[in-house]
Design a protein that fits this description.
This protein is mainly alpha-helical. The protein has helices spanning 2-37, 39-46, 52-68, 70-84, 86-106, 110-113, 116-146, 152-156, 158-181, 184-189, 194-210, 217-222, 231-235, 239-269, 275-303, 306-329, 333-351, 354-359, 367-383, 386-395, 400-419. The chain starts with a helix and ends in a 14-residue tail after the last helix.
Length: 433
């Protein structure tokens, strides 16, 4: 009992730090996903066209543009986190997200300023992409380092709890505006600006909260030794670890952005559900996905990280095509919900633990950069482009080709999962070189 009493202050400190770090992550991803949740309403304001698929394709292209700059954000904020602390990096990143949201909220429409409207929208997405590029690496590193060694999988899973929670919050705001406060016409005309104003305000509050976050013990120990090389040059000393991050991320990020970001458009345009039904289906499936994350994270603390990754790889490669084909043909919202949940049963094998796996690959002095840069590059190639690739196949009349593309990318990652070490048992968390 005495030992438990002595451990209570430390446990409270860790839980508080994880809560603040996670809530900041939630706000960042709420801001980012508000773009997707409200794209059906603001796309005509920025991309006038008689074809709604073309409008959505243009909006999805700018969504992908936000990912193109994520490697730069990963390097900038990874360097900041590794050299000047995880807390500072996390504060600056959420501040940039505030700026990006405000630009979207106040930008005039195409009818008012012409091509300057989509140009400003693109600028906002670039700023948000830089912010998220740094947020992931610093957040994954912080949550993993602040957790105790026996519960890293559980605690780090809250990165995707809040990531999914951010998207869920964006959808819940959409539901309230759709059903309670505004008409469809008001949403199309000006109501779509409201979530971006909310996001900017929440980002300011989060930046203030992050000022009091404790720095991790691992960073304090590593900072006693001054680095002799730049962050990127130091990263080149770990080519195998970088390759593993790229390989394990490719299939997981493609699946994640398919079953979150693209599902809003897929269920609406391919399955043919109304806007309201689509929002309910996606929101319910995200709640299910959110619940899975800590359960899988805790399971990885008992059986290891590798079994969950292999499970995702096998199930994803085999089931993705039949799941999406069935989903495209169903006309029942409940069946659509069950199918998306089925996809989450295996996708959570990646999302719940990918942060801790990447953090456990690198020593402390290069950890944030090692997590952020190769991850951001891979997400830019396979994650952010997933909605645009799917819509391009749809526009060409071959939407089913995307299903096979996704299954193939997951299979490639499966080869990495099968050959990599289990980072729970062979971790670099205590290396501060």
């Amino acid at each position: 009992m005495s030992q438990a009493y002595l451990d209570m202050p430390d446990a409270k400190r860790r839980i508080k730090a994880i809560f603040v770090g996670s809530m900041g992550n939630l706000v960042e991803w709420y801001d980012f996903y508000a773009y997707t949740a409200f794209a059906l309403y603001f796309a005509p304001a920025f991309f006038p066209s008689h074809d709604p698929v073309v409008q959505q394709l243009n909006a999805a292209t700018l969504f992908a543009a936000g990912f193109i700059v994520r490697p730069l954000g990963g390097w900038l904020f990874g360097h900041l986190a590794d050299r000047h602390g995880r807390r500072l990096s996390l504060m600056v990143s959420v501040g940039m997200m505030c700026v990006g949201s405000l630009i979207i909220a106040v930008t005039p429409t195409y009818a008012s300023i012409g091509l300057a409207a989509p140009a400003l929208l693109a600028l906002a997405r670039v700023i948000e992409g830089l912010s998220l590029g740094g947020e992931y690496g610093a957040s994954a590193t912080y949550l993993t380092e602040i957790a105790d060694p026996d519960h890293r999988g559980f605690y780090s899973s809250f990165q995707y709890v809040t990531l999914i929670g951010g998207q869920l919050c964006a959808i819940l705001v959409l539901l309230l505006l759709q059903n309670v406060f505004l008409t469809h016409e008001q949403l199309v005309q000006w109501g779509w600006r409201i979530p971006f104003v909310i996001g900017a305000m929440l980002a300011i509050i989060t930046a203030v909260m992050r000022r009091d976050m404790p720095e991790t013990d691992s960073y304090k120990q590593a900072s006693q030794t001054k680095p002799q090389t730049s962050s990127l040059r130091g990263l080149l000393r770990y080519p195998r670890e970088v390759a593993i991050v790229v390989g394990l991320t490719a299939g997981g990020t493609a699946a994640f952005y398919t079953f979150t970001t693209y599902m809003q458009t897929f269920v609406r345009q391919t399955a043919g559900f109304s806007d309201i039904v689509t929002t309910y289906v996606i929101a319910a499936s995200l709640i299910f996905a959110l619940i899975l994350q800590p359960l899988y994270g805790a399971l990885s603390d008992r059986i290891g990280r590798k079994p969950l990754l292999v499970f995702f790889g096998i199930a994803g490669a085999l089931l993705t095509v039949p799941l999406l084909m069935t989903l495209s043909q169903t006309r029942s919202p409940f069946i659509a919900f069950l199918l998306i949940c089925a996809a989450w049963v295996f996708t959570a094998g990646y999302t719940s633990i990918n942060a801790v796996v990447k953090a456990e690959l690198f020593p402390t002095n290069i950890r944030a950069t090692g997590v952020a840069v190769p991850y951001a590059i891979t997400v830019s190639i396979f994650g952010g482009t997933a909605p645009a690739i799917a819509l391009w196949f749809k526009q060409q009349g071959h939407e089913q080709w995307f299903y096979y593309y996704l299954a193939a990318v997951i299979f490639i990652s499966l080869l990495v999962y099968a050959t990599m070490r289990d980072t729970k048992h062979q971790s670099a968390m205590q290396r501060h070189e």
